[in-house]
Amino acid sequence: MAEARSQHAGHHQAGVEPASTRDPEAEALLFDDEASSIGEEEEAPANVLSKPSPAAAAPGASNNNRASTPTAAQQQQHQHQHSQQQRAPRTPPPRVHFDPNPTILQGRTPNGYANSFDSHRRSSSYDDEYAPGRDSLDDLDFQIDDGAHGGQHRTPLLTGIEAPSVALANGAWGGGSDDEVQSWAEGERQRPKSGLRSAFMNMANSIIGAGIIGQPYAFKQAGLLSGVILLVGLTVVVDWTICLIVVNSKLSGANSFQGTVEHCFGRSGLIAISLAQWLFAFGGMVAFGVIVGDTIPHVLQAIWPGLSDMPVLGMLADRRAVIVIFILGVSYPLTLYRDIAKLAKASTLALISMVIILITVLIQGIMTPSADRGSFTTPTLTINTGIFQAIGVISFAFVCHHNSLLIYGSLKTPTIDRFSRVTHFSTGVSMLACMLMALAGFLTFGDQTLGNVLNNFPADNTMVNVARLCFGLNMLTTLPLEAFVCREVMLNYYFPGEPFNMNLHLIFSTSLVVSAMVLSVMTCDLGSVFELVGATSACAMAYILPPLCYIKLTSRSWKTYVAIGVVIFGCCVMVISTFQAVGKIIKGEGGVAQCM
Question: Which portions of the sequence form the region Disordered (predicted)?
């Protein structure tokens, strides 16, 4: 019996191996069967207590009968008990090792579950409608370099990525109890999810924004032929990197773009993605302020022809005064909201405004007299000198990578294949809209095309003024959304996990709006803003960080070499476009000082 116990103890000790020697596939099986194994271990003591062995139940009887000779029936029963004791215990498959130490259970994640495997199991069993089907990522081999474990681990496919209200509210629980977090998360999972059509509308609205107004200027910078090629080619690249955001998030186990980059590159990666997102959002705030100054004064002067001669109200005819008055009077109060959901209706206004602007440019471009049209040269029709600056302008329009996981989480059945269809359709429709805007504006005004193509039309054009009014009001309500992103990035970076502080909220909100407003007043050329923001933060989020994470997370294949090529392309565009845009501003080339 002592020998049997020693063998059993040896077998038990051999079943527990260090984390560094475990097989990655066995590690995944370990967590998949975690709940069942724990249940079996908890049942074992109950069985022992309910069915004690004869020796344990009657020790006195065993001592009294020690000298007596056992009968044949007793010998047969003793042999049966001995064979039961010698029978090998029930063990898991050879490649799976169960550690009975309860400390292997991980702490709860922000979504309220013990780990992402448990989250996957619960969300899959909740409702078949929400259960993810098999997608194209199931057969992908990948590697994750986890310094904490010193080995490669195979992680699950995420299904718990939530929609915007969930992702933004995750940080609000702070040190709340696990029961509160789990109860809240279960309630959020019962929210109605969106289908493919709604997801397409959300993504298309994210792409077709203020950047569409600068597409004719991009064609002027690059040339007509190269502009068409760039628009199509960059659409394909952006489409692929948008999908990479979700793929990387699945491979890393993170539920945000920031979390994925931090998982791959640590603190330096978090700094890089935070800086890129902040610069892109802040650059958008500056661009929106410039658009307000380019649109609202024209509309007000068209309504009141003698506005500029009025004593006090005459300041509404000046773009600088309009920027200050409207941003502080409309955008700033909206920026003070803590809940971004209160600004959700702005997306509907944005989409309607873009449609009105596109139709206006198409119709008024055809009706523009020949005296107001621009001229064309061989470079403007083929390949022009500002091709890298054009890449920045196009990239500014198409970057929606910071919203990709939110759109993915809103799908009823979130899989890579379904999200890819949404992405392909959204980027395709957005490319057609940008192509129509670029061709209509550039073929009308040629080498005279401005960064804001609406400024090429006369100030007294009624249809254009309606488009200007829609565009300006849209920017006033969209600027707070970008301020919200900037504020959240700053709070999460400098004060992670801390409760809400009204003083910090007011300080960050005020400083962001005022600084963006001042830069908008000082900046006259919208194209320069598009170039700088597109060359820096847009390139980082679209062409550099997603492929870098993919290279880090996957094993070498032909796709990783494509990702390497995209990273090199993004770095070259970032360096060259930034130097060209800054040099153009310093030298005053291209009419950048024009204020209207």
Answer: 1-134
* Angle ∠(252,546,197) on CA atoms, nearest 5: 90
User: Where does residue 348 fall: left (phi above 0), alpha (psi -120 to 50 degrees), or beta otherwise?
Assistant: alpha
CATH 1.20.1740.10 fits 195-591, yes or no: yes
Contact 420, 426 (CB under 8 A): no
Contact present, 214 and 291 (Cβ < 8 Å): no
How many angstroms from the chain centroid is the CA of residue 368?
A: 42
Residues 106, 169 contacting (CB under 8 angstroms): no
d(CA 400, CA 248): 16
Residue 406 CA to residue 202 CA, distance in Å, equals 10
Contacts of residue 42, Cβ cutoff 8 Å, sequence gap at least 6: none
Sign of the alpha-carbon torsion through 542, 538, 403, 216: negative
- 385-441 pLDDT tens trace: 889 989 999 998 898 887 788 788 878 888 888 899 999 999 999 999 999 999 999
Q: CB of 581 within 8 A of CB of 535?
A: yes
C-beta separation of 333 from 509 below 8 A: no
Cα 592 from chain centroid?
33
| DSSP assignment of 83-105 | HHHHSPPP---TT------GGGS
For residue 448, which of 258, 270, 216, 271 has the smallest C-alpha distance? 216
Residue pair 216/437 in contact (Cβ under 8 Å)? The answer is yes
CA distance 293 to 324: 9
Low-confidence ranges of the chain (pLDDT < 70): 1-194, 339-348, 589-596
| Interstrand relation of 151-152 and 145-146 (parallel, antiparallel or unpaired) | antiparallel
- pTM for this model (two decimals): 0.66
| Complete DSSP assignment for 182-207 | HHHHHHHHTSPPB-HHHHHHHHHHHH
Ramachandran bin of 591, using left for φ above 0, alpha for ψ from -120 to 50, beta for the remaining angles = left
CA distance 366 to 371: 13
Residues 276, 456: Cα–Cα separation, whole Å: 32
Could you read off the pLDDT of 332-346 as tens digits, one per residue? 998 998 766 666 566
Helix (H, G, I), strand (E, B) or coil at 451: coil
Q: In the structure encoding, which two tokens stand for residue 132, read together?
A: 């993810």
Contact 440, 367 (CB under 8 A): no
CB-facing half-sphere around the CA of 233: CA atoms within 13 A? 11
